[in-house]
Amino acid sequence: MSDIKTIGKARSAAIEPGKGTRTPAPAVRPAGSGEADRRLIEAIELLFFGYRDFVSEPDTILGAYEFGRAHHRVVHFVGRNPGMTVAELLDILRITKQSLARVLRQLIERGFIEQKTGETDRRQRRLYLTGAGAELWDRLAVPQKERVRKALAAAGPHGEAAWRDIMLALIDEEHRPDVEQIINREP
Amino acid sequence: MSDIKTIGKARSAAIEPGKGTRTPAPAVRPAGSGEADRRLIEAIELLFFGYRDFVSEPDTILGAYEFGRAHHRVVHFVGRNPGMTVAELLDILRITKQSLARVLRQLIERGFIEQKTGETDRRQRRLYLTGAGAELWDRLAVPQKERVRKALAAAGPHGEAAWRDIMLALIDEEHRPDVEQIINREP
DNA sequence: AAAAATATGTCAACATGGCTGACATAAATT
DNA sequence: AATTTATGTCAGCCATGTTGACATATTTTT
């Protein structure tokens, strides 16, 4: 961390002089032009491009249903956590209940998700996929699984484990236990 | 791939019977409940959660500027590719020029990006970060670099290389050469 | 039993950032 | 001279996020 800060300061000083009338071309340098920094930028871009393509196929499929990415997320997590409460879903998605309400209503109206009053706590509306919901979930998951399967397979078991460790480490330390619990659910 | 298809069919058959009045709870199973499938779902969720947290800090910073994620992407790629053309930027972002026009106009008006007419082809408007633009780019990059640095460091050099390979393999084969060229740019 | 807290839903208004379609201009290419 | 290319722009639509206020049923606390 200290090296990043140092490099950042160095660049800042190098940039300021030129202010309003700076020569732009190769003169503009990002914070820290060292090799270590280059690798970090590369990783940042890999995350951008990887995620971009990772969601491209589901987006296309969703279009045919007149659904969006938001619907996909709801279907996925309800599929993975049958009977989850609205509050739990909000917690995972990190959106407001008003935002969720819209997509959830559409999914319920069109028969992809159903709600059941909680048995012990009757204030809860527990969420479940219907048959159609499970089918949609599948269809969306097929291209993503295939993409991930190919990518992981090429790296071997060690590489796969390292990839997981790194992805987990990208998550806020604070949320990591929650996420671990979610991803390590029964099939 | 064939195994996924097979598992998919099997689940489909197991789901249909219950149709409208299905018992939902643990009865709803995703396509393929095997161990291999579980790992794929885990990876899919790691990508979701990883990306979610990966963009959270920049989002907060951007809020102070009244900018959004779209502005970040433009600032980043212009910073990384000084003098890039609008067409090249559109190609990377995969959005329409009308969508880009909005954020680009705001960034230019507020002095974060400047345009220069192309020297050889005077139809082009080549894009550059101003000093303020480079500074913003830095500020947004700091938390992301730090996050990535920590995550990669914990895995060691082999793990880091494997992570990169897998991220690259997640990208459409068709676009992989372009992406490799972009991420392997000079500092 | 009454009061407070909780889980959920809803109405209304607004912002961002995608999209399509149509059209305009200047410069390069044919 | 005609066409293509790079870019810009106007207008309108849609999806999905936001805030704030308020309603209802149910559970928990006092």
Main features:
homodimer, 187 residues, mainly alpha, 2 strands, globular, DNA-binding
Give an overview in words:
2 copies of one chain form a homodimer. The two termini of chain A are 39 Å apart. With 187 residues, chain A is mainly α. A two-stranded antiparallel sheet of chain A has the order 1-2. Chain A has helices at 2-15, 35-54, 56-65, 69-80, 86-93, 97-109, 131-153, 156-170, 176-183, and strands spanning 113-117, 125-129. Chain A contains 9 helices and 2 strands, in the order H-H-H-H-H-H-E-E-H-H-H. The first copy, chain A, is globular. Helix content of chain A is 66%, strand content 5%. At the A-B interface, helix 1, helix 2, helix 4, helix 7 and helix 8 of A face helix 1, helix 2, helix 4, helix 7 and helix 8 of B. The structure holds a DNA duplex (30 and 30 nucleotides).
